[in-house]
Amino acid sequence: MNPQATLNELLEAVGKRDWDRIDELATSLIHWMDDHKFPPITLGPPALGPTWHRTLATFVCYMAQAMVREARKRRERRPSR
């Protein structure tokens, strides 16, 4: 897996509101980082270190998953026609 490409795809999917893709990419990136593999470069230079970039990438993933849950709740509450 390329974590940088995955983060870029995740951000693109957020822009498109592709909820299924967002969920898939965020989950994959979290699992990648949980296995203590290197994180993608996020905000700031690489010199900030892996802890900084892992923290920001993890935050982005969890926020994206929260957006997915909220979108799915709204969809469920929508009256059927």
Question: Can you offer a commentary on this structure?
Answer:
With 81 residues, the protein is mainly alpha-helical. The chain has one domain (3-77). The protein has helices at 3-16, 19-34, 50-77. 19% of the residues are buried. The model has no long low-confidence stretch (mean pLDDT 94).
Low-confidence stretches: none
Structural class: mainly alpha
Average of pLDDT? 94
Question: Number of folding domains?
Answer: 1
Largest sheet: none
User: How many DSSP E strands?
Assistant: 0
Q: Output the radius of gyration.
A: 14 Å
Q: Based on CA inertia axes, which overall geometry fits?
A: elongated
Query: How widely separated are the two ends?
Result: 42 Å
* Helical content class: over 70%
Strand content: under 5%
Number of helices: 3
Order of helices and strands: HHH
Short note summarizing the structure:
The protein has 81 residues and is mainly alpha-helical. The chain has helices at 3-16, 19-34, 50-77.
Layout of helices and strands:
Layout: H1 3-16, H2 19-34, H3 50-77
List key phrases describing it:
mainly alpha, 0% strand
